[in-house]
Amino acid sequence: xxxxxxxxxxxxxxxxxxxxxxxxxxxxxxxxxxxxxxxxxxxxxxxxxxxxxxxxxxxxx
Amino acid sequence: xxxxxxxxxxxxxxxxxxxxxxxxxxxxxxxxxxxxxxxxxxxxxxxxxxxxxxxxxxxxxxxxxxxxxxxxxxxxxxxxxxxxxxxxxxxxxxxxxxxxxxxxxxxxxxxxxxxxxxxxxxxxxxxxxxxxxxxxxxxxxxxxxxxxxxxxxxxxxxxxxxx
Lengths: 61, 163
Ligand code: FES
Ligand code: FES
Description:
The complex is a heterodimer of chains A (61) and B (163).
Chain A: E1 5-11, H1 13-20, E2 26-29, H2 33-40, E3 48-55
Parallel strand pairs in A: 1-3, 2-3
Chain B: E1 2-3, E2 6-7, H1 18-25, E3 44-47, E4 50-53, E5 66-68, H2 81-88, H3 98-113, H4 133-139, H5 150-162
The complex binds FE2/S2 (inorganic) cluster (FES) (2 copies).
């Protein structure tokens, strides 16, 4: 698996977009069940992972 | 992160899965690595009470959270109710899948109690779930048992659902 940098974002969804902005190979991660499996097989190789678990998104509007 | 009530801090490569962090860096080898691809459930642990496959998630994502593994379920020598039920109803043979089965069952019983529906629940809006064998099998379908101890596993969980 290729090395990546990691950042966790909180607050509104715009923070996740801001964190990913301008970074090539940036990818969002929540649970990771698909992405990590693909990363293990080198099918995906994100350079930067933005963890969106702490975003305040807990309702459907 | 807090693991089984103890604060653990480790310095690891961000690529380390939660499972590897628990097994290789914290010495908690109860959680098993069956496939490392999210297919068998042997690595199931609880994060804030919810079950996850620890092989398909990075340990760095759980900073500051509460992780419970099979080692953290018993209270001293007093086995957890689900552990007791597995012993009583012969819910295992070789035991490889058992830590995952038990962690999964603990969370699954809590999910059912909270009224969560499954793919075989007829009435999705019903407030209460009756854990029939079909429901138990569906809800535990992420945990494979190569020894085929399923009848005992279902029996053990049913005994707790009825209790
Ligand atoms: S080792 Fe995690 S699901 Fe098989
Ligand atoms: S008891 Fe052997 S795999 Fe389940």
